[in-house]
Design goal:
The chain contains seven helices and six strands. The chain is of the alpha+beta class and 206 residues long. Strands 2-1-6-5-4-3 form a six-stranded mixed β-sheet.
Amino acid sequence: MENPVKEVSQVIHSLTQTPPSVQRATIERYFTPDASFTHPFCRTGSFNGSRWLIWCIYRWYKILSPRIEISVDSVAFDAHSLLLYVSIHQVFKIFVIPGFRAPVKLVTVLQLVRAPASSKAQPLYLIASQNDLYQVNECVKFFSVLRIVWLFVLVWQFIATGFCVLGAILCSPISWMEENVVGGNQERGVKEIVLGDGGEWVDKRA
Protein backbone atom coordinates (compact mmCIF):
# COMPACT_ATOMS: atom_id res chain seq x y z
CA MET A 1 0.00 0.00 0.00
CA GLU A 2 1.26 3.43 -0.89
CA ASN A 3 -1.51 5.22 1.02
CA PRO A 4 -2.75 2.88 3.80
CA VAL A 5 -5.66 5.07 4.88
CA LYS A 6 -7.12 5.22 1.36
CA GLU A 7 -6.27 1.69 0.24
CA VAL A 8 -7.00 -0.50 3.27
CA SER A 9 -10.75 -0.59 2.62
CA GLN A 10 -10.22 -2.11 -0.83
CA VAL A 11 -7.71 -4.58 0.61
CA ILE A 12 -10.24 -5.76 3.20
CA HIS A 13 -12.96 -6.19 0.58
CA SER A 14 -10.54 -8.16 -1.60
CA LEU A 15 -9.71 -10.44 1.33
CA THR A 16 -13.33 -11.16 2.21
CA GLN A 17 -15.47 -10.80 -0.92
CA THR A 18 -13.47 -12.08 -3.90
CA PRO A 19 -12.85 -15.46 -5.58
CA PRO A 20 -10.05 -17.68 -4.20
CA SER A 21 -7.44 -16.62 -6.77
CA VAL A 22 -7.95 -12.90 -6.07
CA GLN A 23 -8.04 -13.53 -2.33
CA ARG A 24 -4.71 -15.35 -2.41
CA ALA A 25 -3.11 -12.76 -4.71
CA THR A 26 -4.20 -10.04 -2.27
CA ILE A 27 -2.54 -11.80 0.66
CA GLU A 28 0.67 -12.38 -1.29
CA ARG A 29 0.76 -8.77 -2.42
CA TYR A 30 0.00 -6.99 0.85
CA PHE A 31 1.27 -9.33 3.61
CA THR A 32 4.90 -10.07 4.42
CA PRO A 33 5.97 -13.75 4.07
CA ASP A 34 6.26 -14.03 7.87
CA ALA A 35 3.09 -12.08 8.67
CA SER A 36 1.04 -13.13 11.69
CA PHE A 37 -2.71 -13.23 12.25
CA THR A 38 -4.42 -13.06 15.66
CA HIS A 39 -8.13 -13.58 16.24
CA PRO A 40 -10.14 -14.65 19.33
CA PHE A 41 -10.60 -18.08 17.74
CA CYS A 42 -7.27 -18.66 15.97
CA ARG A 43 -3.70 -17.41 15.53
CA THR A 44 -0.76 -18.22 13.28
CA GLY A 45 2.37 -16.91 14.96
CA SER A 46 5.12 -15.40 12.84
CA PHE A 47 7.65 -17.44 10.89
CA ASN A 48 8.86 -17.72 7.34
CA GLY A 49 5.86 -18.95 5.38
CA SER A 50 3.21 -18.12 7.99
CA ARG A 51 1.45 -16.06 5.33
CA TRP A 52 0.17 -19.34 3.88
CA LEU A 53 -1.72 -19.99 7.13
CA ILE A 54 -3.37 -16.59 6.81
CA TRP A 55 -4.57 -17.55 3.35
CA CYS A 56 -6.03 -20.80 4.76
CA ILE A 57 -7.87 -18.86 7.47
CA TYR A 58 -9.37 -16.42 4.99
CA ARG A 59 -10.23 -19.26 2.62
CA TRP A 60 -12.12 -21.19 5.35
CA TYR A 61 -13.78 -17.95 6.47
CA LYS A 62 -15.08 -17.44 2.92
CA ILE A 63 -16.18 -21.07 2.60
CA LEU A 64 -18.23 -20.82 5.78
CA SER A 65 -19.78 -17.52 4.73
CA PRO A 66 -19.74 -17.21 0.93
CA ARG A 67 -21.60 -13.88 0.94
CA ILE A 68 -20.16 -11.63 3.61
CA GLU A 69 -21.50 -8.14 4.18
CA ILE A 70 -18.63 -5.98 5.41
CA SER A 71 -18.02 -2.25 5.68
CA VAL A 72 -15.15 -0.10 6.91
CA ASP A 73 -16.45 2.59 9.28
CA SER A 74 -13.25 4.49 10.02
CA VAL A 75 -9.48 4.33 9.60
CA ALA A 76 -6.70 5.89 11.69
CA PHE A 77 -2.98 5.68 10.95
CA ASP A 78 -0.21 6.16 13.50
CA ALA A 79 2.64 7.04 11.16
CA HIS A 80 5.22 6.97 13.95
CA SER A 81 4.45 3.39 15.06
CA LEU A 82 3.21 2.29 11.62
CA LEU A 83 -0.04 1.04 13.16
CA LEU A 84 -3.24 1.14 11.14
CA TYR A 85 -6.52 1.00 13.10
CA VAL A 86 -9.59 -0.04 11.12
CA SER A 87 -13.10 -0.03 12.57
CA ILE A 88 -15.28 -2.60 10.78
CA HIS A 89 -18.77 -4.00 10.96
CA GLN A 90 -19.80 -7.17 9.18
CA VAL A 91 -22.64 -9.65 8.91
CA PHE A 92 -21.38 -13.23 9.09
CA LYS A 93 -23.72 -15.92 7.78
CA ILE A 94 -22.92 -19.66 7.88
CA PHE A 95 -24.46 -21.20 4.78
CA VAL A 96 -25.11 -24.62 6.40
CA ILE A 97 -27.17 -23.05 9.21
CA PRO A 98 -30.30 -21.44 7.73
CA GLY A 99 -31.23 -18.23 9.49
CA PHE A 100 -27.87 -17.82 11.22
CA ARG A 101 -26.82 -14.19 11.07
CA ALA A 102 -24.11 -12.59 13.22
CA PRO A 103 -23.83 -8.80 12.86
CA VAL A 104 -20.58 -7.94 14.64
CA LYS A 105 -18.28 -4.97 15.09
CA LEU A 106 -14.51 -5.13 15.53
CA VAL A 107 -11.34 -3.12 15.36
CA THR A 108 -8.52 -4.54 13.27
CA VAL A 109 -5.02 -3.40 14.16
CA LEU A 110 -2.52 -3.76 11.33
CA GLN A 111 1.19 -3.49 12.02
CA LEU A 112 2.77 -2.16 8.86
CA VAL A 113 6.39 -2.25 7.71
CA ARG A 114 8.07 -0.45 4.88
CA ALA A 115 8.80 -2.77 1.99
CA PRO A 116 12.53 -3.10 1.28
CA ALA A 117 14.08 -1.88 -1.98
CA SER A 118 11.07 0.23 -2.96
CA SER A 119 11.84 2.13 -6.14
CA LYS A 120 9.07 4.66 -5.56
CA ALA A 121 9.60 7.94 -3.80
CA GLN A 122 6.77 7.16 -1.39
CA PRO A 123 7.42 4.02 0.67
CA LEU A 124 5.34 0.95 0.01
CA TYR A 125 3.77 -0.49 3.17
CA LEU A 126 3.19 -4.19 3.82
CA ILE A 127 1.18 -5.85 6.58
CA ALA A 128 3.41 -7.60 9.14
CA SER A 129 0.61 -8.57 11.52
CA GLN A 130 -3.17 -8.43 11.81
CA ASN A 131 -4.88 -8.41 15.18
CA ASP A 132 -8.70 -8.57 15.21
CA LEU A 133 -10.15 -7.14 18.43
CA TYR A 134 -13.73 -7.93 19.47
CA GLN A 135 -15.71 -6.96 22.54
CA VAL A 136 -16.88 -10.09 24.38
CA ASN A 137 -20.54 -9.42 23.56
CA GLU A 138 -19.61 -9.17 19.86
CA CYS A 139 -17.42 -12.27 19.88
CA VAL A 140 -20.10 -14.58 21.32
CA LYS A 141 -22.45 -13.75 18.45
CA PHE A 142 -20.48 -16.16 16.26
CA PHE A 143 -21.66 -19.21 18.21
CA SER A 144 -24.91 -17.99 19.74
CA VAL A 145 -27.57 -19.01 17.23
CA LEU A 146 -30.46 -17.75 19.34
CA ARG A 147 -28.35 -14.97 20.90
CA ILE A 148 -28.87 -16.49 24.34
CA VAL A 149 -25.16 -16.32 25.17
CA TRP A 150 -24.97 -12.78 23.78
CA LEU A 151 -27.90 -11.73 25.98
CA PHE A 152 -26.29 -13.36 29.02
CA VAL A 153 -23.01 -11.48 28.42
CA LEU A 154 -24.88 -8.20 27.92
CA VAL A 155 -26.79 -8.62 31.19
CA TRP A 156 -23.62 -9.63 33.03
CA GLN A 157 -21.82 -6.50 31.77
CA PHE A 158 -24.54 -4.27 33.26
CA ILE A 159 -24.45 -6.26 36.53
CA ALA A 160 -20.66 -5.86 36.68
CA THR A 161 -21.07 -2.10 36.19
CA GLY A 162 -23.48 -2.11 39.14
CA PHE A 163 -20.87 -3.86 41.29
CA CYS A 164 -18.33 -1.21 40.26
CA VAL A 165 -20.71 1.56 41.37
CA LEU A 166 -21.42 -0.23 44.67
CA GLY A 167 -17.73 -0.84 45.32
CA ALA A 168 -16.83 2.79 44.57
CA ILE A 169 -19.48 4.03 47.03
CA LEU A 170 -18.74 1.57 49.85
CA CYS A 171 -14.99 2.06 49.54
CA SER A 172 -15.11 5.85 49.31
CA PRO A 173 -12.99 6.12 52.54
CA ILE A 174 -10.16 4.44 50.61
CA SER A 175 -10.55 7.03 47.85
CA TRP A 176 -10.39 9.79 50.48
CA MET A 177 -7.17 8.34 51.91
CA GLU A 178 -5.65 8.04 48.45
CA GLU A 179 -6.48 11.68 47.71
CA ASN A 180 -5.50 13.19 51.06
CA VAL A 181 -2.85 10.87 52.46
CA VAL A 182 -1.18 8.77 49.81
CA GLY A 183 -1.57 11.02 46.79
CA GLY A 184 -2.66 8.72 43.96
CA ASN A 185 0.31 7.05 42.29
CA GLN A 186 2.64 9.42 44.09
CA GLU A 187 4.00 8.54 47.50
CA ARG A 188 4.86 10.50 50.63
CA GLY A 189 7.46 9.51 53.13
CA VAL A 190 6.43 8.15 56.55
CA LYS A 191 7.52 11.42 58.18
CA GLU A 192 5.19 13.50 55.99
CA ILE A 193 2.22 11.17 56.60
CA VAL A 194 2.67 10.81 60.37
CA LEU A 195 3.76 14.33 61.26
CA GLY A 196 1.84 16.12 58.49
CA ASP A 197 4.61 18.66 58.04
CA GLY A 198 3.64 19.54 54.47
CA GLY A 199 6.69 17.94 52.92
CA GLU A 200 7.10 17.72 49.17
CA TRP A 201 5.51 14.84 47.28
CA VAL A 202 8.01 12.16 46.33
CA ASP A 203 7.30 10.50 42.99
CA LYS A 204 9.10 7.16 43.06
CA ARG A 205 8.64 6.75 39.31
CA ALA A 206 10.92 9.72 38.54
